Amino acid sequence: MATKPKLSVYWAASCGGCEIAVANLHERLLDVEAAFDFVFCPCLLDTKKQDVEAMADGSIAVTLFNGAIRTEENLEMARLLRRKSQVLIAFGACAAQGGIPGLSNVSTAADHLRTIYLQGPTLDNPEGTIPRRQTVVDEGVLALPGLLDQVSPLADVVEVDYTIPGCPPESHQIWAVVDAVIRGVALPPPGSVLGAGASTVCDECPRTRGDKRIDQLRRTWEIDPDPDRCLLEQGVVCVGLATRGGCGALCPQVQAPCIGCYGPPEGVTDQGGKMVSALGSMIDIEPLKGLPEAEIVARIDAIFDAIPDYAGCFYKFGLPGSSLKAAVAARVGVSAQDDQ
Amino acid sequence: MTGTFEPTIVGFLCNWCSYAGADKAGAAGMPYPPNLRTIRVMCTGRIDAQFVLKAFAEGADGVLILGCHPGDCHYKEQNYRALGRHRLLLRVLEQHGIERQRCRFDFVSAAEAAEFAAVVGEMTADIRQLGPVNLRAVGADAQ
Ligand code: FES
Fold first, then answer.
1. What domains appear along chain A, each with residue ranges and CATH number?
2. Does residue B17 form part of some domain?
3. Interface residue of B46, B85, B88 to substitute, partner A, most A CBs within 10 Å
4. pLDDT single digits (tens) A164-196
5. Residue B142: its pLDDT value, please?
6. What is the distance in A from the centroid of ligand 1 to the CA of B105?
7. Residue B58, domain member (yes or no)
């Protein structure tokens, strides 16, 4: 039997949803299995890290790497799989942009440890035990991978060949990429985004768009939106216009605003910045005309007061992939090293 | 830090009012701090929030946006739009730990040379007090 190219799927700081998206290929998994030697996938297979270490460098044809880089272990696995793989693909929103775990970058790792293990109202931790790299017990030394100060997308720590965005990537999009590889179709230039559109979710959204003049923002539970009109025009913060298409605008079709999981579209470097620019420009200014400058500012501010969490709204899946990547050190007041 | 730290402030000035106001301040020999790096734009309406975020990401300590007074914008109402974007961006920046004083929006007309000098002076003094923006390094170890 001719040797098949090797495929691996790894999870770093992730939820497992990307693996489910792969499993959702359903019977096409058999085609994947027929075309590839599926060598490594901790969620589905028994092969271990040392098995990967034993492989020759560059011997894995394609690795789909999902999850963000949160711990030293994530970093180590990213470097190992980069070395072993010919094509390394940042797979899913977390590997692409930091994903939901990336929202933790509004704070530092040291702060998280304090909040989670020392300050939680339901905690009972009289000795103030927090996870540490090494803990000596009677039986020996226990080791845990350390936390990195902040969450990073895969491309910030190793060279990445392609990105397949989405939380999780839509299975038909995964299949389109895998199928192209199986059929030997030439891949686009390295650095390209695969399995997604170039434009925005709005371009795939069937809702009708008109004039955008917002005088009030509404949380999703505050309104039963008109199913045919653009959600943003109804005051619901939908980030579709700052988000890459490819999903088929699934969320807006079921009355839920786009929350941005496919990341920024072509030509946008900062998804949140793009959304701020768009939303900031949509305030209905007619009633503001002729008012004193301070009053204009106060009226605009009153409208934006309805947004409870800006990073959570505009960078839900991509804070580490944004221009600023994380809150500045001064805000949290500690260098993370202080703590341990 | 005070006294030794000289902030770099990126200024986006609208061509029709504020840039002309800055020009007038210069022509009149009005002193203002040399910390401002001016970028002339046709209108504040051209300023995408991404420009401001990029400026901070690349090391600016402050970003100043100056445009025509309400009603005076040469592109109808774009300065209202710019103001809306700025008010929202301030909140995003604050969540990132970047203080409000570091991103200022003001109205300066072509005649207001003294106001221009005063705004730049005030902002420079504010940021000297605050010190540099401490962006965190990627991949740093926490423990
Ligand atoms: S032309 Fe000056 S702000 Fe528009």
1. 6-101+151-182 (3.40.50.700), 106-147 (no CATH), 201-308 (no CATH)
2. no
3. B88
4. 999 999 999 999 999 999 999 999 999 999 999
5. 53
6. 13
7. yes
CA pair distance A279, A49, nearest whole angstrom: 46
Q: What phi and psi values does residue A285 have, to the nearest 5 degrees?
A: -95, -5
Please, what are the averages of pLDDT over each run of 10 residues along chain A (340 residues)? 88 96 95 95 95 98 97 97 98 98 93 92 92 93 93 97 98 94 92 96 97 93 96 97 97 97 97 98 95 96 95 96 87 40
User: What's the rounded Cα separation, in Å, for the pair A121 and A102?
Assistant: 24
CB contact (8 A) between residue A285 and residue B95: no
Which ligand 1 atom sits nearest the alpha carbon of residue B18? 2
The total number of structural domains in chain B stands at: 1
pLDDT score at A340:
38
Residue B114 sits in which domain range?
22-37+44-142
- ipTM score of complex: 0.93
Residue B16 resides in a domain: no
Q: Which chain A residues have a beta carbon less than 8 Å from that of B61?
A: none
Residues of B with Cβ-Cβ distance to A72 under 8 angstroms:
141
Mean of per-residue pLDDT scores for chain B: 93
Radius of gyration of chain B (CA): 16
Residue B10 belongs to a domain: no
Å from CA of B107 to ligand 1 middle? 10
Q: Which of B46, B75, B80 to mutate to test the pocket of ligand 1 (most atoms within 8 A of CB)?
A: B75
The most distant pair of C-alpha atoms in chain A lies apart, rounded to whole Å, by 80
Which chain A residues are within 8 Å of B83, Cβ to Cβ?
296-297, 300
Nearest to A157 among B85, B86, B139 (CB): B139
The full DSSP string for A107-147 is S-HHHHHIIIIII-TT---TT-----SEEEETTEEEE-PPE
C-alpha A174/C-alpha A246 separation (Å) is: 11
* Helices and strands of chain A, counted as H and E runs: 11, 9
Are B83 and A337 an interchain contact pair (Cβ–Cβ within 8 Å)? no
Pocket lined around ligand 1, Cβ cut-off 6 Å: B 14, 16-17, 43-45, 67-68, 73-75, 78-79
Question: Can you tell me the distance from the alpha carbon of A333 to that of A331, in angstroms, rounded to the nearest whole number?
Answer: 5
Contact: B83, A300; criterion CB under 8 Å:
yes
Whole-structure pTM value: 0.93
| Residue in the structure block whose two tokens are 């007619």 | A286
Which structure tokens are listed for B49? 């929030």
Dist CA B113 CA B30 (whole Å): 8
Q: Please tell me the distance from the alpha carbon of residue A224 to that of residue B66, in angstroms, as a whole number.
A: 40
